[in-house]
Structures are given as structure tokens and as C-alpha cells.
């Protein structure tokens, strides 16, 4: 049994060394991002920001079309108002 455990121990050490060397060789340093690159990366992967941008574009489109519609006007006629006349003139009473 001692020979078997020492051979397993040797295999474990060899695998660990191979993994450590392989991982060491494939690990690269992180690249520094500029502010513009970071902003582009953030904007591309953020669905909330994309939805907000769509809402802003829609509001701008509504603002442009609002200038194309006429403004509502309020008018009133004063020909039916007689401040010096008697109220209900020309109506008939029901006699109650």
C-alpha cells in the first residue's frame, strides 16, 4: 500500500504543477480602460439605460409633433348675457 499512496501522491503533485504552470501562463494582466471605453461598455450592457434612452427619444418626438398642432382657443359669446334685464324673461311658468 505505501507504494500505491506514494504513486498517487506523485501523480497529484504532477497534476498540481501542470495546472499551476498552465494557469500561470494563461493569466494575462488586466488592460486599463479609458473613460470612453468604460462608458461604451456600460451603455451597451445596461437595458435600463437603453429603455430610458428610448423614452427620451419618444418624448422628443412628441415635443416636435406638438408644435405642428394648433393651440386650443377659448371663446365666449356675450350676446346672451343681459345684466340689466329681468331673469327668465320670455319663459312660461307652470303655476306651481
Give me a quick take on this structure:
With 96 residues, this protein is an all-alpha fold.
Strand content: under 5%
Helix vs. strand class: mainly alpha
Q: C-alpha Rg, in Å? A: 42 Å
Q: Note the main sheet.
A: none
Description:
Helix content is 57%, strand content 0%. By secondary structure, it is mostly helical. The N and C termini lie far apart (123 Å). The longest helix is centred in the N-terminal third of the chain and has 25 residues. It has a domain of 33 residues. The protein has three helices and no strands.
Secondary-structure topology with pairs:
Layout: H1 2-26, H2 35-44, H3 47-66
Task: Describe the structure using short key phrases.
single chain; mainly alpha; 57% helix; 96 residues
